[in-house]
Amino acid sequence: MNEERYQQRQQQLKERVEERVAAATKTGGILIVLTGNGKGKSTAAFGTVARAVGHGLKVGVVQFIKGTWENGERNLLEKNGVEFHVMATGFTWNTQDKGADVRAAEEVWKEGKRMLSDPSYDLVVFDELTYMIPCGYLELDDIVDALKNRPANQNVIITGRACHRDIIEIADTVSEVRPVKHAFDNGIQAQKGIDW
Ligand code: ATP
Ligand code: MG
């Protein structure tokens, strides 16, 4: 491509980008869903938390995780003023004691709902929320209502595989992480600082 054509093409590209930037006139909080079977959903969510904290924003996190092991993101972010509510003890995917699991889920969801009705939170993260719906631990309608009625400027991130379509529908940004390869399939163990 000669110099003149290259410049012409760059100019057109610049104009198209500028048009799109000028067309984006709305403001307000957005709902982001990070879903799919590949690695990178929770780490992307906590990357955004780090970005928000770096700008002095107020952030709350609810983690619907399985065990009680410590996770690196909490160790770091709690020290930096991020509020964590973790569904910790006794959570069994095999539902040996479904009542206890439901109570644990409801307990942290209550904190999540409180944050979803408090405009002082700029960003609220619900890590691994998606699994609570098919398991029957939380009500889909309750979640959708709380998300829809949150303060206009509040941003929310939801992570987890197989996100329910009703949540996808009300989301503004949805990314699906696709596994091309995963080290674990090749027998490589999960590592502290990389996987949790
Ligand atoms: P991460 O926290 O690393 O961003 P994730 O949130 O996208 O992962 P989860 O399903 O929440 O994915 O994964 C929890 C754990 O399982 C992490 O330790 C992650 O490395 C691992 N994992 C994620 N995807 C896969 C996969 N396709 N195969 C095997 N292990 C996976
Ligand atoms: Mg995750």
Give a brief outline of the structure.
The chain has 196 residues and is of the alpha/beta class.
Q: Tell me which ligands are bound.
A: adenosine-5'-triphosphate, magnesium ion
CATH architecture classification: 3-Layer(aba) Sandwich
Measured between the Cα atoms of the first and last residue, the distance is 47 Å
Count of discrete domains: 1
Hey, roughly how much beta strand do the residues contain?
Answer: 5-15%
Order of helices and strands: HEHEHEHEHEHE
Instruction: List the total number of helices.
Output: 6
Instruction: Flag low-confidence runs.
Output: none
Description:
With 196 residues, the chain is an alpha/beta fold. It has a single domain, classed as P-loop containing nucleotide triphosphate hydrolases (Rossmann fold). Helix content is 39%, strand content 14%. The protein has a six-stranded parallel beta sheet, with helices on both faces. α5 links the parallel β4 (123-127) and β5. The longest helix is centred in the first third of the chain and has 21 residues, at 3-23. The chain is globular and about 70 Å long. Residues 37-43, 128, 159, 161, 177, 179, 182, 184, 190, 195-196 line the site of adenosine-5'-triphosphate.
